[in-house]
Amino acid sequence: MGIYCTTAQLQAVQGDAESFSLEEMDRAIQDADGVINSWLGCRVSLPLTVIPGRLQQVALDIARYRLYREESPQETRLRYEDGVAFLRDFSDGRVTLGVTEEEKPAKTGSRVVVVARGRVFGRDLLDKMA
């Protein structure tokens, strides 16, 4: 089962669901989850507590596209591209998910500290090597 949609939901929208195994559908859903999380993670803390209907539709569109791979029907490809465009617009701040959770910036909870030793090759050593 995925984060944004289920195998049963994918089967319901997939006209030829019997052409694909449950494992293939589960993998496509996991791939869709990964794509969505990669776009959402820059603006919100994951996992989301509320899954908006728009994200569920995007997940289904991405999963359907992943099922077909290179032989994707044009409508499926266009829906996939629309879904990715929506995710890109969300990450750029042009659209919202329609829930208040998006207003919170992603929490990093850690900081980066850089510690460096002294130079190994300084001007004096390099001059001696010449």
Verbal overview:
The protein is mainly alpha-helical and 130 residues long. It is built from five helices and no strands. The chain has helices at residues 7-13, 22-40, 53-68, 74-91, 123-129. Helix 2 packs across helix 3. The longest helix has 19 residues, at 22-40. It is elongated and about 75 Å long. The protein starts with 6 loop residues before the first helix and ends with a helix.
What layout of secondary structure does this protein have?
Blueprint lengths: L6 H7 L8 H19 L12 H16 L5 H18 L31 H7 L1
Protein traits:
single chain; 130 residues; mainly alpha; elongated
Report the total helices. 5
What is the helix fraction of residues, given as a range?
A: 40-55%
**What separation lies between the terminal Cα atoms?**
65 Å
Total beta strands: 0
Q: Give the helices and strands as they follow along the chain.
A: HHHHH
The biggest beta sheet reads: none
Give a short synopsis of this structure.
The radius of gyration is 22 Å and the shape is elongated. It has helices spanning 7-13, 22-40, 53-68, 74-91, 123-129. Helices cover 52% and strands 0% of the residues.
